[in-house]
UniProtKB/TrEMBL annotation:
It is found in: Membrane. Its main location: membrane. One of its GO terms (cellular component) is membrane. Keywords: Membrane, Transmembrane, Transmembrane helix. The chain crosses the membrane at residues 6-25, 85-104, 116-138. This is MAPEG family protein. Pfam families: MAPEG (PF01124).
């Protein structure tokens, strides 16, 4: 697999993260300007944002939990030359589950649907890690 093919899903997921970052900053700035919260109320990271702003911020923060294991896998698989078609296809499936999770998170925030999207992504990532480990340890 080419480096570009392996990294494209990574770049797409990073794009989602930056989109959420910009949305969060905009929402937080608007909340302060509209006096829905004050700088003193949030200066030490207290969760004093309005619910919608907190929802966007929590979705952004979530991009640094399970996806971190995805980034690590790709960072290891590339230089070890273990990033093959399976890894690339599963990367795209993982990215789709992350978009679904984020989409549910910032819209309906239906916990059942969001949990299913999260769990699907976690299972895909687990399969990727098992495949990578077996490939590496068994020299397949």
């Amino acid at each position: 697999m080419s480096v570009q093919m392996v990294l494209l899903p990574v770049f797409v997921l990073i794009g989602l993260t930056f989109f959420l970052l910009l949305w969060m900053v905009t929402a937080r700035t608007k909340a302060v300007k509209a006096r829905e919260t004050s700088l003193r109320d949030i200066a030490l990271g207290q969760p004093k944002y309005p619910p919608r702003v907190a929802q966007i911020g929590n979705c952004f923060s979530n991009q640094f939990e399970v996806p971190l294991l995805f980034y690590l896998l790709i960072a290891l698989a590339l230089p070890l030359r273990r990033a093959d078609l399976f890894i690339v296809l599963m990367s795209w499936v993982f990215v789709v589950t992350r978009f679904a999770h984020a989409g549910i998170f910032v819209t309906s925030n239906n916990i059942q649907q969001r949990s299913l999207a999260w769990f699907a992504g976690a299972l895909v990532l687990l399969a990727m890690w098992i495949y990578f480990a077996l490939k590496l340890l068994l020299l397949i």
